[in-house]
Each structure stands twice: as C-alpha cells, then as structure tokens.
Amino acid sequence: MSMSDPIADFLTRIRNAQMAQLPGMSCPSSKIKLAISKVLEDEGYITGYAVEEKAGKAMLNVELKYFQGKPVIEEIKRVSRPGLRLYKGKQDIPKNRAGLGISILSTNRGLMTNKQAEAAGLGGEILCTVF
Fold first, then answer.
1. What residues contact residue 44 under an 8 Å CB cut-off, 6+ apart?
2. What is the pLDDT of residues 103-131, one digit of tens each?
3. Least crowded by CB within 10 Å, which of 1, 14, 20, 104?
4. What SS3 string covers the chain?
5. How far apart are CA 66 and CA 47, in angstroms?
6. What is the pTM of this model?
7. Which residues contact 12 (CB under 8 A, 6 or more apart)?
8. Which residues of the chain have pLDDT under 50?
9. Cα–Cα distance for residue pair 93/124, rounded to 1 Å
C-alpha cells in the first residue's frame, strides 16, 4: 500500500518515539526526510541522523534529543499537506510561538527555517512547525 503523505508519517514517528522516551527512531529514507532531519539537527532539535541499508532499502535513523528527561521537541505539526498546500510569500511567513519555535519551509533554494527564509527574502511552502 502506498503512503499518501510520507512527511506526516515521518513527523508522527518522531512524535511517537519521543512520547515513548525512545533514544531514536527509524523510517524509510527520502531526500525530503533527509533535508528535514538536517534542519532539525542544525537547529538543535535532534542529536543526529544517519542513513543505512537494511534488506536492500535505505533507512533513515534519527537520534532524538532529551533535556533533563524531557523531549526537546515539545510539538511538531504538519502544516501544508497533499490535500491543502500552504504557500506564503516572504512578507507573510508566520512566526512560530512568537519566535521561540521554527517553521520549516520548502523554498527554491532548498529547505530552511522561517528565520533563514526571512533573512534571504524568500517565501515558500510551509511544511511543518516545531516547538
């Protein structure tokens, strides 16, 4: 069975693994998931990520980050979805929780946070918000 929204599945796996206090999670790898993992690592929400081959398929392993026994990611939500894409111009990019969280945008220069997109003067599709 094909998956209609692999990004939402990826975010849900992260959410579920952190609720279960797991040290990491694994899912099928793709370019967009790798790019989201890179942004999350750069912003300090996860410890790291790696791709490994299992039974001929590439699997993405994400090491989750905890601080004093609590997950660093309090909330991670999908914004734009296949049934309702959400695009914002450079002047309309929302601030997540008054600037405390981040939004991950897909721009013509790749995936970046709302702060990076604002500094570069770019808009794009808002994939998810992280707080």
1. 65, 72
2. 999 999 999 999 999 999 999 999 999 99
3. 1
4. CCCCCHHHHHHHHHHHHHHCCCCEEEEECCHHHHHHHHHHHHCCCEEEEEEEEECCEEEEEEEECEECCEECCCCEEECCECCECCEECCCCCCCHHHHCCEEEEEECCEEEEHHHHHHHCCCEEEEEEEC
5. 9
6. 0.96
7. none
8. 1
9. 9
